[in-house]
Design a protein that fits this description.
Elements (H helix, E strand, L loop, with lengths): L1 H26 L9 E4 L3 E6 L2 E5 L8 E7 L2 E11 L7 E7 L12 E3 L6 E2 L3 E5 L3 H9 L8 E11 L8 E10 L3 E10 L2 E11 L7 E9 L7 E7 L6 E8 L4 E3 L4
């Protein structure tokens, strides 16, 4: 009788352990493998199907998979996955590793993409400057006041040949503080003596509600030789950071489909 009770107890313990293991397995986040997809920043995704570009920012767990990365103006192989994140406006954020398993630390946000994508990048360098006649002229033409109550917080300039005409263009990411409580952020391109607005926003000047634009990458996503301009849109000091895409038709910039 005692032996039977002992066997029953062991069986019950085994069943409880089995139940706990199954519960844990099924409670783990389940991701998926992506195709024809680029991963930018913390959770922006750019999907290309039949030449059509779609941009979305769903924050979800993804399984570890092989990927390529644009890292320090070079293409390298590695893998991408997500990790738990208590910041940046979501539960998960991208995590990039090189082939040796080392974590990749990106300067302007991560840029990775699945191995089935064939992307072209324009290499660029950027510089911080304190003032610029180009910025002042752009503001003048677009009725953006720079007066005694306006301070230039930041000007970042990217320089490269956008359209392969052997003439370099400049892309400016600008932040202005107005009356110590308003913030104006905008990105524009200077080309052949003309100025073209990419995007702009006005917000409160604080770490919680401030919106800031920053040009980051120039990429041909769908192999049509028309490069997409990738701009980071920071919603606050603590995130989320979205990445938005724009096309230039020679006269105006158009934001591509997305959120």
């Amino acid at each position: 009788m005692i032996k039977n009770k002992k066997n029953i107890m062991i069986l019950i313990l085994l069943l409880v352990a089995f139940y706990l293991v199954i519960t844990i397995i099924f409670s783990l986040p389940k991701g998926k493998k992506y195709k024809n997809t680029a991963f930018i920043g913390d959770f922006t995704k750019v999907e290309v199907k039949s030449g059509i570009i779609n941009v979305y920012n769903n924050n979800e767990f993804i399984d570890k998979q092989s990927a390529k990365f644009c890292f320090k103006n070079e293409e390298i192989d590695g893998s991408i996955l997500t990790r738990d994140s208590g910041s940046n406006g979501g539960d998960y954020s991208y995590y990039a590793l090189d082939k040796k398993g080392n974590v990749l630390d990106f300067d302007l946000g991560m840029f990775g993409y699945t191995a089935d994508m064939d992307l072209k990048f324009k290499k660029t360098e950027y510089a911080y400057i304190k003032d610029s006649n180009e910025v002042r002229e752009f503001c003048k033409q677009n009725n953006i006041a720079i007066g005694e109550n306006t301070n230039i917080e930041q000007i970042v300039v990217n320089n490269f040949d956008v359209d392969d005409d052997n003439n370099n263009e400049d892309i400016y990411s600008v932040g202005l503080i107005e009356n110590e409580n308003k913030y104006k952020s905008f990105v524009f391109m200077s080309k052949d003596g003309k100025y073209y607005l990419i995007d702009q926003a006005e917000s409160d000047y604080n770490s919680v509600n401030g919106i800031r634009f920053r040009f980051t990458f120039l990429v041909d996503f769908n192999k049509d030789d028309n490069y997409e301009f990738v701009v980071r849109k920071s919603m606050s000091e603590y995130g989320p950071n979205y990445y938005e895409l724009y096309n230039f038709d020679g006269n105006t910039f158009t934001k591509l489909g997305g959120e």
